[in-house]
Amino acid sequence: MDEVGSKRPPYLIITVLMVGAFIAFLNNTLLNVALPAIMDDLGVNMATVQWLTTGFMLINGIMIPTTAYLIQKYSVRGLFLSAIGLFTVGTIVAALAPVFSVLLIGRMLQASGSAILMPLLMNVLLVSFPISRRGTIMGFLGLILTFAPAIGPTLSGWIIQQFNWRALFTLIAPISILCFILGFIYLKDKKEKVDMRLDKLSVVLSSVGFGSLLYGFSSAGNVGWGNPLVIITIVVGIVTLFTFVIYQNRMDTPMLDFRIFKYPMYSLSVVISMIVFMSLFSGFMLLPVFAQDVINLTPMQAGLLLLPGALINGIMSPINGKLFDKFGGRTLAVSGLAILIVTTFMLSKLSFETTMTELAIIHAVRMFGLSMVSMPVQTNGLNQLPVNMYPHGTAMNNTLNQVAGAIGTAFLITILSIRTKLYMVQLTSEAERAGKVLTDAQLEQIGVEAMLGGINDTFFISAIIIIVALVLAFFMKRVTQDNRGEGQSAIEVNPATENS
């Protein structure tokens, strides 16, 4: 194998991979705004339609752990074409779906392709660039990770207003087809054949473990922690994952190698990233609720107030990547986490007088801080791994971030629900003690005030969580790569299409 970064990186195919990953990530949040329209059109209730998002996440959680094996076993070309092909077929099926069950099948196909694209892209970037340049290129990846989901609600709201929910799929399909064609023409591999077999028990344990955990935490946010199904699935998930870890550590060639956690900076980066992902969802989840239910903005306005933050994050991610190459990850992470803490505390002081402009500014500064944390922290950890461990490192990152997002969302929804109910009881009791006979309008107003209190408390808890990540960030160190691992093949594009 050529030394990593010794040849000019294949920028063309990296661009194609990034576009594919971008539309896959964008697709994750596009559908949230469209759920009411889908319910009306296909005649399903909220509990049923939620499977379009829950099912997508479950398939991701089941598929991502297998990507370490897939990346080692198969060529980048084969994996990319399979992933973008599945995503494309799923998009077309969803666009033409006559009934809900067909739409759900389309979403599952999309998810199976999407799950492969991001770990594959991260692995290609790691083997294509030396450590000294990885911060910059991973900064561009950070743009995808945060920009696509952030603009999803705004873009979705506009598309649905102009067309209908099917346009969310029909507009993406041509881009997905173009990515497939470009990958088919230009992507080649120098990868040697690897004699590996996928251990069936590993797949079963991983699927049941991560799938149960994700389902349990996702359901907890909707039906409560005391629901028997929630308790059973979380317990099954924990026990199965414990068994999975022990089994993997006893294998010579594990499907997902947990020995990567012997690298301290990688382990630290995973913990910090999970904490940030847990708390990050507070902004994406709570701000639209506050905007629409408390200060009565339209769905389009609620989406637009998130847009400046998404743009700033997109602009700053590559810049912070260059700063990472120059100064390392700790300075960026500490500064970014400090900004996240301050802005999240500011969001815990919301009121009925808070304006859309104030929200947009606070969120934009918050996203500026996030751009200094997300990819720099992950890149610093991955840099310590030997080359042959990259597939395991990227698969572990993506899997645990999915789990952290589900846990964080469920936890914050629970905090919101508990605190809102408490404020509702307090405010109602105060009014009754004052001898007031509450009308329906007054009860509704009390409900809105209670929700405001719950949202503020949830942001406060979120800020406390981020403080833990800030403390951990002070222990980050700039790392050198462990080169004791085996080599990994690189990729190339058709020489005729890449200028030397």
TrEMBL record:
NCBIfam families per the UniProt record, alphabetical: efflux_EmrB
Domain Major facilitator superfamily (MFS) profile stretches: 13-481
Name of the featured protein: DHA2 family efflux MFS transporter permease subunit
Transmembrane feature ranges: 12-31, 51-71, 78-105, 111-131, 138-160, 166-186, 198-217, 229-247, 268-291, 327-347, 399-418, 459-476
Membrane topology: Multi-pass membrane protein
Localization per record: Cell membrane
Organism of origin: Pallidibacillus pasinlerensis
SUPFAM superfamilies: MFS general substrate transporter (SSF103473)
Signal peptide region: none
Record keywords, A-Z: Cell membrane, Membrane, Transmembrane, Transmembrane helix, Transport
Domain of life according to the entry: Bacteria
Similarity field: Belongs to the major facilitator superfamily. EmrB family.
CDD domains cross-referenced by the UniProt entry: MFS_LmrB_MDR_like
